[in-house]
Design goal:
Blueprint: E1 2-6, H1 13-22, E2 26-31, E3 42-46, H2 52-62, E4 66-69, H3 80-99, E5 105-111, H4 121-140, E6 143-149, E7 151-153, H5 162-171, E8 184-189, H6 190-202, E9 208-213, E10 218-220, H7 221-232, H8 250-256, H9 264-273
Parallel strand pairs: 1-2, 1-4, 2-3, 4-5, 5-6, 6-9, 7-8
Antiparallel strand pairs: 8-10
Helix pairs in contact: 1-6, 3-4, 5-7, 7-9
């Protein structure tokens, strides 16, 4: 299958692209920087996805059958100006993808923060893109999938994120700490997120479907710190599950045949073995 992927060099886009290529699919990867992929099935388009002229020509020439939007312009900037830029660029991408005859499926990555009662510019942007995808799906008859990704972690995550920062602290021999130890988060390995996105892409269905992508097991951050410390010391210690916002895994299990495979303790241990 020929699949267009934005953000192919990013934290989530990279494992999506890697898994697609390993499965024999052909990928046109959109990225602002060199991705490092040398597979014969990989085609690079070096541009920001807001630069529509460059992307449009490359995509039309490639004739993708599916589209996965995994990019975010101005990484980790969730201010109003950045969210407006991402929303307008995302709307342009969806308009293009649903209008291109070769594309049958469109997949977008959302966030678990969409479940929070308090709206932010980031959730406003994500919800608007999701609703646009649903409208395009209804009028075009093409499939649309929206994955609300919970707290992803894994290789190539930014150093300032929680788990990489805890590992760096353990490596330095300092006591582990975080600002909100009693906060509960549902962590999911980025490899499992990539698998979910690919399953959503490959399951042909003209419906517009929303899925949570998490572990359904919220953990207090103080327990996550204990898990990191145990892993650093060579012990396996799975944090206890607590109350908190958690992914509903029934829809992705039933419609995609997907559930997460990597436990938090194993995922952290792998990061220590392969930093």
């Amino acid at each position: 299958m020929k699949i267009l992927v934005t953000g192919c060099s990013g934290f989530i886009g990279r494992p999506i692209t890697r898994q697609l290529l390993d499965s024999g699919h052909e990928v046109l990867g959109i990225s602002r920087q060199e991705s490092g992929f040398t597979d014969p099935g990989f085609h690079a388009c070096l541009c920001d996805f807001t630069c529509w002229g460059l992307l449009d020509g490359a995509a039309r020439s490639f004739q993708p059958e599916a589209f996965i939007h995994a990019a975010w312009h101005q990484t980790h900037d969730y201010s109003e100006p950045a969210c407006r830029i991402n929303l307008m660029a995302g709307l342009n991408l969806f308009q293009f993808a649903f209008s291109l005859p070769s594309i049958r499926q469109v997949v977008g990555l959302g966030s678990c923060l969409e479940h929070e009662p308090k709206s932010t510019w980031f959730t406003w942007c994500k919800n608007a893109l999701r609703e646009a995808g649903h409208l395009h799906s209804e009028t075009s008859g093409k499939g649309f999938r929206w994955l609300r990704v919970f707290y992803a972690y894994g290789p190539d995550q930014r150093p300032a994120a929680l788990i990489p920062s805890l590992l760096a602290t353990a490596r330095a021999g300092r006591p582990l700490e975080c600002a909100h130890p009693d906060r509960a988060c549902d962590f999911v390995h980025v490899s499992d997120v990539a698998t979910a996105a690919i399953r959503a892409t490959l399951v042909e269905d003209p419906a517009a479907l929303d899925f949570d992508c998490g572990s359904a097991q919220p953990r207090r951050l103080r327990d996550v710190m204990d898990c990191v410390q145990a892993a650093w010391e060579g012990r396996a210690e799975e944090p206890p599950v607590t109350q908190g916002l958690a992914a509903d895994l029934s829809p992705p299990s039933e419609r995609l045949g997907w559930s997460p495979r990597i436990s938090l303790s194993n995922g952290i241990s792998e990061l220590i073995e392969k930093p």
